[in-house]
Amino acid sequence: MGRDKSTWTTWQADKSGGAGGDYSKTYYPQPSFISSRRYAAHLDTSAHTALDFRRSDFHELECWEVPNRLELWAATDIASLVEALTVRFGRPPPLPVWTDNGAIIGLKDGARSFERLNRMIEAGVQVSGLWCEDWAGVRRTAFGTRLFWNWEWSAERYPDLPRHIADLAERRIRFLAYANPYLSTDGPLFAEADALGLFVRNDTARTYHLDFGGFTAGMVDFTNPDATRWFIDRILRRNMLDFGIAGWMADFGEYLPTDAQLANGDAMLLHNAWPTLWAELNARAIAETGRTSDALFFMRAGFTGAPRHCPLLWGGDQSVDFSRHDGLPSALCAALSSGLMGNPYHHSDVGGYTSLFGNRRTPELLMRWAEMAAFTAVMRTHEGNRPDQNIQVDSSPGLLAHFARMTVLFRALAPYRRALVSDAVTRGLPMQRALCLEFPDDTNGYAVQDQFLLGPDLLVAPVESEAARAWSAYLPAGADWTHLWSGATHSGGRHVTVSAALGEPSVFWRQGSRFEELFRGLPA
User: Fold this and answer.
1) Domain boundary at 421, 446, 471, which?
2) Does the pLDDT value for residue 512 go beyond 70?
3) Are 493 and 479 in contact (CB under 8 A)?
4) Over the stretch 229-264, which tens digit does the pLDDT of each residue have?
5) Euclidean distance between CA atoms 448 and 434, whole angstroms
6) What is the widest separation between alpha-carbon atoms in the chain?
7) How far from 408 is each of 128, 201, 448, 507, CA to CA, in Å?
8) Positive or negative CA dihedral for 118, 122, 125, 127?
9) Does residue 23 register a pLDDT over 70?
10) Does one domain contain both 241 and 365?
11) Does 52 share its domain with 106?
12) 368 part of a folded domain
């Protein structure tokens, strides 16, 4: 958040202490890049790095230590470069098949969450999972409703949760939760871990109490093997997997203080690498229970080597608006960038997350975001940081009907997505693809950041503007493209403008695709 300095929301946030982000910060600080000249480079370091591309005849790479290696690749096309990079950085396991059944519905409404889910299903929403990030309880802060960071079931917030989980399982619906690397200092798990000496420490060798605005927390030290073992056994296995939880948001991973004292290593150098340690820990817990490619965790943070462990990324805490660098469009740019670096499965919070200074979701934003999400690896909703002040997918019959229709479309694309999962496993190719990955000879496609290919055969240009009812898309040269809704066919190598009413995003399928019959039969 906070990269779009042209918006009123960011101006207010900066004035009141900082929005938390700008173009010098990222959740995924991996020093790698791909060039349109068909080579790639990677600095083997976790130190602070700056890449300067302002000159066309050379690149300037600044690093705060001498890297172990400067690695270079060359290939005849972009897809071959991605294949080589994913061998280097690792490839995740296949995305669980159950995610194809429909949307993962994010609700944090305590026991009422199950009632609301049932009403959505009755309205035709296709559901694969119920994600209740508030399973461990909540607290109220100035930022909004925050979770209580003590990773065990809150019987007060969710009475009889084991029965509900079992009931959902009988209906082939998974229950998902939430965890992060911190424990609130006012929670019982903090006292347990503190007594065992499992937290990172401050400069006085005492447990580092991190301020998260309204509460403090300790951070588990992943360089301590005993701490890692405790977190896996005590939280991820006993409190979650053994409890019946089928997945979780593995949040944060990017906030290691650079002045922290660790059991092993320098925090200045481990800060950027911390997301990979966090990803590996979560993957180990799942692997040890024999549930790889069944249980699912998803992260917003990453670094070199993270794709080997993390099965699913999400785009972070987008603003609940259409702003270019913080809202809906930024989730698409994140998907394209991360996909080129070895993360084949990406998604975002349907409707965005961050609502500050009076910035609120509109029904149109929520509908347009659902339209984009129907063509991504996973479709998942989020109620946001201020759920009571924002529109939700079940806030009105019209919104719910639109959302249900998008989930039907998402489910209908399951056979196509399964083929793309195979591409990810065998070649490392992402589901959401930059145009240059499939059409490297069309130089017009290299700069396109506001549309994507879902695999090789579906082109999606999400509507990213309020009140737009027509939308322009660039159709790559070398193929003919059929508009999904009208059936009109257009030659590639040019921009076309098509009708884009609510419920009909700008989507085209490639003529000659082996999935032509599936595309022709998609629900209108």
Assistant:
1) 421
2) yes
3) no
4) 999 999 999 999 999 999 999 999 998 999 999 999
5) 8
6) 69
7) 12, 49, 28, 16
8) positive
9) yes
10) yes
11) no
12) yes
- The answer on pLDDT for 20 being more than 70 is no
Residue 204 in tokens: 């006085």
Same domain, yes or no: 48 and 107: no
CB atoms within 10 A of CB 276: 26
Looking at the structure, do residues 42 and 168 belong to the same domain, yes or no?
no
394 — pLDDT class (breaks 50, 70, 90):
very high
Query: Kind and range of the H or E element at 472?
Result: strand 470-475
Shared domain check, 406 and 283: yes
Helix (H, G, I), strand (E, B) or coil at 66: coil
Q: Where a domain ends, among 392, 421, 450?
A: 421
pLDDT over 80 at 128, yes or no:
yes
Are both 68 and 175 inside the same structural domain? no
CA 358 to chain CA centroid, Å, is 25
CATH number at residue 381: 3.20.20.80
pLDDT at 354 over 90: yes
Structural contact between residues 408 and 523, judged by C-beta atoms closer than 8 angstroms: yes
Long-range contacts of 519-522 (CB under 8 A, 24+ apart): 519/457, 519/458, 519/482, 519/484, 521/412, 522/409, 522/412, 522/413, 522/484
The partner residues of 73 in beta bridges, in order of sequence, read: 40
Q: Do 161 and 265 fall into the same domain?
A: yes
Q: How many domains does the structure of the chain reveal? A: 2
Which residues fall within 8 angstroms of residue 2, CB to CB, at 6 or more apart?
A: 10, 13, 14, 18, 19, 20, 21, 22, 326
Range of the domain at 335: 97-179+224-421
Q: Return the closest-CA partner of residue 436 out of 428, 426, 448.
A: 448
In sequence order, which residues have a C-beta less than 8 Å from that of residue 102 and are 6 or more positions away? 125, 126, 127, 128, 379, 407, 410, 411
Residue 51 lies in a domain: yes
Q: Read off the pLDDT of each residue in 484-509 and give the average, rounded to a whole number.
A: 98
Annotated catalytic sites, by residue?
A: 251, 254, 317
How many Cβ atoms sit within 10 Å of the Cβ of residue 15?
A: 10
User: For residue 389, what pLDDT is reported?
Assistant: 94
Our measurement of the distance from residue 385's CA atom to the centroid of its chain's CA atoms, rounded to an integer in Å, reads 16
Determine, yes or no, domain membership for 246.
Answer: yes
Strands 210-211, 216-219: pairing is antiparallel
Q: What is the pLDDT, as a whole number, of residue 95? A: 98
Cα 390 to Cα 410: distance, rounded to the nearest angstrom:
24
Give domain status of residue 188, yes or no.
no
Q: Are residues 29 and 169 in the same domain?
A: no
∠ CA 282-287-290, nearest 5°, is: 140
- C-alpha 48/C-alpha 29 separation (Å) is 8
Tens of pLDDT, residue by residue over 29-50, are 999 999 999 999 999 999 999 9
At 363-388, the pLDDT tens digits run: 999 999 999 999 999 999 999 999 99
